[in-house]
Fold:
Amino acid sequence: MIKSEPKSQTSFYESVQRYFEKAAQHTNLEKGLLEQIQACNAVYEMRFPVKIGGTYQIIEAYRVQHSHHRSPTKGGIRYSNHVNKEEVMALATLMSYKCAIVDVPFGGAKGGVKINPWEYTPQELELITRRYAAELIKRNMLGPSVDVPAPDYGTGSREMAWIYDTYRTFKGEDIDAAGCVTGKPVAQNGVRGREEATGRGIFYGIREACNVSEDMHKLGLSVGTQGKRMVIQGLGNVGSFTGRISQDEGGIVIVGVSEVEGAIYHPDGIDIHELLKYRKENGSILNYPGAQSFGSDQRTLVMEFECDILVPAALENQITIDNADRIKAKIIAEGANGPTTAGAEEILLQKGK
Structure:
């Protein structure tokens, strides 16, 4: 029996392992095999110098290959000043499970660079990205048949293009070089629809869940997505596309949104296209016309807003034992990696979410 979290500070990696232990009880696999499935096969921790503004900075970075049961390994690269080894291990572990669940022939991997990308110029980010890619190439941890990165929090098609170009510089003879990374710009052998794919997948998951009449009856909701109220935490790639597609194709009403600068709420609905335009012009979602604003110190309140569907689309460990009992949403559609801790899940299930 999985015990409740002893504290809200349970690490992301610990939470992932507890989810695994809960699921493992429903298998007939021997202990040794279960332990092998849990273990990260390769953890590479690196420090490298990059010249920024005339002085050298030592950059901390990681690449974790969780499982080599299928190759190549696959998983995004995160740029965040919160990056640490355990976080990247947890993310890589989840990638293995996600690939296995839908029978995609990859092992899980993940990368992380401990920087705040918004503190650097594009030229400085290019230097950091290319050096990180070079470090991976030198240790045979990047390549179409070895390990294939992708965008994650703080990265996008631009960074993937730099990685692709760096790989070609080292491995120009590789006819499959374009397969060394996914999420590239379409003009550089990228795939159309890739940018919106995660957000679209979140909407499809919501749509299918809302079409199960038995489940909707238990929740006291009507069948279908039309008119349901949604709150989105995080307006990056995943959150913005989830909002746009849910509004445009599902008739869902966006009533609340949060970003690093704070949160807004409007019970009658927020046009997501207008909000994205407003943020681009003003650099913030705060003071959006007609909506109630909450400052950065109150942005976590977005989890507790009145709604039918909550989409945590930012970082891990956002729904914890500290706030799970105050969440009013009846459906939680996880757009981030591991936003709900194991202990919080128990509370949500007990409340009938």
Summary: The chain has ten helices and twelve strands.
